[in-house]
Automatic annotation (TrEMBL):
GO terms for molecular function: DNA binding. Signal peptide: none annotated. Pfam families: LacI, Peripla_BP_3. Residues 3-57 form the HTH lacI-type domain. Keywords: DNA-binding, Repressor, Transcription, Transcription regulation. It comes from Pseudaquabacterium inlustre. PROSITE patterns: HTH_LACI_1 (PS00356), HTH_LACI_2 (PS50932). This is LacI family DNA-binding transcriptional regulator.
Length: 375
């Protein structure tokens, strides 16, 4: 039979409570006593029960991440950043996707109850305050690219740390870049109507058109962030007479831009010769399509890592560990927490007609050297 904590206590000549404190790193155990207990535990090959430790410490060493989807390069990069940061802090990761549905998001959060020490929430199509009603009181929580309470009049989300990217600035940058290439009919492919990131990118697009020396009227197409949506818009554009056709397209994410690129290529429309093209996110595949896609670089993995680090800090600080606080049904009342907005960078590649070197972070330059030479 495997050794138990009682066996270790008996062999070390101490109480079970002292063994527990020594194994869990408490400071109120004498160094000599701790060493004796650990030596006995090794000799008996005693392995503490994870479940028992969780009950004693009120910690699972696991954090949750609720994302709108788990499919595609964007979320693969985001999960990579979150997971690497979690492992660096000795934490396990429990991931769930909501598929953009508020009901599924709420159900996923309820399922995480008691299983995680904290949670990251990325719900760009939902009101963060409504989702937080499904969390245990005082559970450490960090918002990621989610609507803040300032935009919704809520009171709960305003007390939580949040991380986001500057979507409006990214929309402005790409639109201004396309205009600088001499494009005079710049179209925009939007994302889901309820997605606040898509709305912000469209806002940046409209602001940039208005700010041009010769302001342009917006030309907007509906999209849903999928490659299929971008391809459908590309087919619409390809079917138009050349005189009426947009001479540039800015898609609100790279997947739609790539779908549009495929449709234009199938129709024999030259990119960027006849239609310049730009996306948003800078997913890894963007540099490998033909022509390589101009886009707005989002530090995807870094965003996930920064949010996880903030969550781990909250967990380690003891937020949520107080039994009385956890047992209460009182509303969450938290002091205002900072909202960190990460900057974005324009990455000019051949799809927009700009031969300038790509302003990509140093960590990505090595992979770009392996790209096919420009022709």
């Amino acid at each position: 039979m495997p050794a138990t904590i009682k066996d270790v206590a008996r062999a070390a000549g101490v109480s079970v409570a002292t063994v527990s404190r020594a194994m869990n790193g408490h400071s109120n155990v004498l160094p000599d006593t701790r060493e004796r207990i650990l030596a006995v535990a090794r000799e008996l090959r005693f392995t503490p029960s994870g479940a028992a430790r969780s009950l004693i410490m009120r910690r699972t060493e696991t954090v949750g991440a609720l994302l709108p989807d788990l499919h595609g390069e964007y979320f693969s990069e985001l999960i990579r950043g979150i997971d690497q940061a979690a492992r660096a802090r000795g934490l396990h990761l429990l991931v769930s996707g909501s598929h953009g549905d508020a009901g599924e998001a709420a159900a996923a959060l309820r399922a995480m109850a008691g299983r995680v020490d904290g949670v990251l929430i990325m719900a760009p199509q939902a009101d963060a305050d409504a989702l937080l009603e499904h969390l245990a009181p005082n559970l450490p929580t960090v918002l990621l690219n989610s609507p803040g309470s300032a935009a919704h009049g809520g009171t709960l989300a305003g007390g939580l740390p949040s991380f986001a990217i500057d979507n409006v600035d990214g929309g402005r940058r790409m639109t201004a870049h396309l205009a600088a290439q001499g494009r005079r009919r710049i179209a925009f492919i939007g994302g889901p109507a309820a997605n606040h990131e898509a709305q912000a990118r469209r806002q940046g697009y409209r602001e940039a058109l208005t700010a041009l020396p010769r302001p342009q009227a917006p030309i907007e197409y509906a999209g849903d962030f999928t490659e299929a949506a971008g391809r459908a818009v590309g087919q619409q554009i390809a079917a138009m007479a050349a005189a009426r056709r947009p001479d540039a397209v800015f898609a609100a994410n790279d997947m739609m831009a790539i779908g549009c690129l495929v449709a234009l290529a199938e129709a024999g429309i030259a990119v960027p010769g006849e239609v310049a093209l730009g996306g948003f996110d800078d997913i890894p595949i963007a540099r490998y399509v033909t022509p390589p896609l101009s886009t707005v670089h989002v530090p995807i993995a870094e965003l996930g890592a920064a949010a996880l680090a903030a969550l781990a800090d909250a967990v380690e600080a003891g937020a949520g560990d107080d039994a009385d606080a956890l047992a209460t049904d009182a509303p969450r009342v938290l002091p205002p927490a900072p909202r960190q907005v990460l900057p974005v960078t324009l990455v000019a590649r051949r799809s927009s007609g700009d031969p300038a070197p790509d302003p990509v972070p140093q960590t990505r330059r090595a992979s770009r050297r392996a790209s096919p030479p420009k022709t």
